[in-house]
Structure formats: C-alpha cells, structure tokens
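Researcher: Here's a chain I'd like modeled. Treat it as a single chain, no partners, no ligands.
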Amino acid sequence: MVFSERNSPVFNCVDKNSLGQMPIFEHDQNYFNLYLDTFTENWKYYNQFFKQGLNVVSEPFYNASTKASLKLSNLFNEIMQNDKDSFNINGSYLIGDIVYLVHFETKQGSDELEIAFYMFHKRGMPIAFYIESYRTNTLNAWVSNKFDGYFENNAESIKGWIMNYVSTVFVISMFKKYADVETKVIDGQSKLKDNKDKFINDLKLPVTYLDSKWFTNIVRSDGFMVSGHFRLQPKKSNGEWTKELIWIEEFEKTGYTSNAKINE
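Model: Modeled as a single isolated chain. Structure tokens:
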C-alpha cells in the first residue's frame, strides 16, 4: 500500500495544507464557480485539525466497529448527557473510496459545539461539507449534485444525510480510542513491512493503518450459550477510572473465564 501525492491526493492536500488544483465533478462546476474561495478558506482553517491523524480503515476494522456501534453510541450519549468530559474528534479517515475529514469539539460545562466535516472521493473530488461553529455563528452545508435524489433539497434533509456519515466516523474514531485494536503506524517518508503487508509512505505526516485482530478478555466455558458481544469494561489508567471497549466471544455461561490477546 502506497501513500503519495499520486495515490493519496486528499491525504497529500492535508499534508501540504493546500487543496491545490482540486478536481471537481462536472455537475458541481457551477457551485464551485461561485463558492470555491469560501470552500477553500474554510477547509484551510480546519485543516489544522484534519492533519492531527491520517487513518486508513481496513474492512475488518470497519466491520468490527460497526458491530460495536450501539455500545459506542451509548458511551457517547453518556459522555454528553452527564457532562463528564470535553469531547474531541480530529483527523482524516480513508474508508473504502471515501475520505472523511472531521473536527468535532464540545467543552465540559458548556453547550458550545463546533463541527467541521468534509467528504472527498479518494481521487480528490469534493462530495460534501458541513460546518457548525459557535465561534463564528456559522451553519453551512453542501452536497454534490452527484447525490441528487438521496435527500430532499432543504437544509434539514441535507444535514441529516451528512450526519449519517459523521456518525460513521464517530464510531470508528471511538472504536480506535476505546478498543484494544491493532494499528500499524507508517512514519512520514518511510517504509514498513509487516508479515505479508508492505507500506510505503511518501508523505511527511505519519499514516495509521487500522486493523481489528486484537481484543481482550475472550470468555469460554461450559453451560448455556451467550452470544458474542461488546462490553464497556471499567479500567484504571494513570490513577483515573475510564472505560475500555472489549469483545466477549460467544460462550457457554458457567462462570469460567480465560484471557487471550488475539481473536482472528
């Protein structure tokens, strides 16, 4: 897998802090004739957050995070409702053919919210963006004409369509944070060979490849069957209690527990 200006044009833009000569779908040309400067200026401001992590999401990682989505949504709601902590998600995520750039920020003890979310095709064409900022009192959204028919042509419908994808990135980001997962970090301008995988990163920023082979607390025993499921396990880290997402394999309930590191 190669990450370079040619093979990863969106990551390259994030790396260089410039959209450059951005390719545009033909049916979006009229929009960008009018609003290219606004699109570019907003993107450039928020790129300081997008470049905080370049992530490539493998299919197994995506499937595993989807499986955990309900638990992660409950955790997110718990954080928000109980005002337990400030909550931030920043970075860039390549999932399949789409690159998602996200900045999400809430502050403890405040209703203030800031979100900037951009979607690009992996070849560089813009697909959508959404900005909601308490700092500038801005609410702005756009979706490519390529997706006409997926929603009604009004602000609420567009926001709903975009927020579905925002939720996907939230789940993946939280899965990375709370689960014990396998990651491969390819430093800027370096190579990495791991078993059968070979990675080449010609960008200056590091790229993280997310996989899903590593979990903890695999439970097996004799008795009645309990289906496999995710659980948020209390965990003490640096003297403070937090929660870690763990995978419990399907097991027969008798109270016997054994530990393992790898679930393939």
